[in-house]
Amino acid sequence: MINTKYFLKGFASVKGVDSPAIALAASFIAIGALFKSIGLNIQESIFSTFLTYALPGSLIMAESLIVGASLLNIFLAVWLVNARLYPMTVSLFPLLTHKSQPKLKYYLACHFIAVSAWLIMKKNYKSVERKYRLDFWIGVGAANLSVAVSATVLGFFIADHLNKDMMIGLAIVNPVYFTCVMVGAMKTIQMSLAVILGSMFGILFYFISPEWCILLGGLTAGTLAFFIGELNGN
Amino acid sequence: MAINIVLAIIVTSLATYISRFLGVITSKKIKENSKIFRWFNCLAYSTLSALLVRIIVFPIGALAEVDYLTRFTVVFICLIVFLIGKRNFVYPTILSALLLAFLSSNF
Fold first, then answer.
1. Is this structure's pTM higher than 0.95?
2. Nearest CB to B24; choose among A69, A110, A179
3. Residue B6: its chain A contacts at CB < 8 A?
4. Pick from B28, B32, B82: which is nearest to A180 by CB?
5. How confident is the model at residue B104 (pLDDT cuts 50, 70, 90)?
6. Residue B2: pLDDT above 60?
7. Is the CB of residue A202 less than 8 Å from the CB of residue A181?
8. Looking at this predicted complex, what is its ipTM?
9. Which of B30, B56, B63, B62 is nearest to B44 (CA)?
């Protein structure tokens, strides 16, 4: 099933100075408080974070509930904003495959794909024996999901004590963490271009279509970065 | 509220899980040292970057209540702190919350 030693090793990697735990906790505290303010109960809030576990999608769901959007609209908006999880999965899972692991495990383990856990895994996979990488990954993912769910619960219960300025303060933590991560990832021409062009095309496409800007901007920028990088030896 | 909350949560989770699920299917055919793997790596970082810039420049929710100059200033200062602070993630993230909460309550 799951190798406990590697699972716990992965679980423990959520500690450390480069851990996303603080950013993750801050944003899910804000989500928990937001859920309470729009009328979700505690069970629904936990259920939502546990099942979705992707911040922008949860935010869109909350906004949609406020304006009373249809289920189809919610589906499309969430799919578009969370479609980044597709290239993230494809750029991680080939590193985790091993013939000894059952197939079903991959389909369950992919639920943990989110920026936080993904970044830890990208950084550490080489230090883990290939056979056990999936177990290590499940540990990393379970730790991050636990932080997210606990923070949602905390946010839900302290919602009444959070004023507007505190909510704004919590909301900036994740984007700042991301910015640092992205700048930190700019180590090759390809990576630097992917990040810089991604931000440029993201804005550019926003003026054409706010819904599609992440997907189209990312696709254009990533493809350009790839080709320019390949021509210049990565 | 017009629609059922539980249904909205299920729809949101499904819309999110689809991308992860399709990612696993695609992964099966991709070798880690292939060009297509490097292309997907570029796509992952560029879509993340596009998402990030959208959150900072065109935010929804609480951040939309702060004017963009304040948002940019906070992100910029925290990035500098990150770069001079030996790339420690703890300082800039904690600073960002305090700084923005302070700026938005006083200005």
1. no
2. A110
3. 44, 47
4. B82
5. confident
6. no
7. no
8. 0.92
9. B30
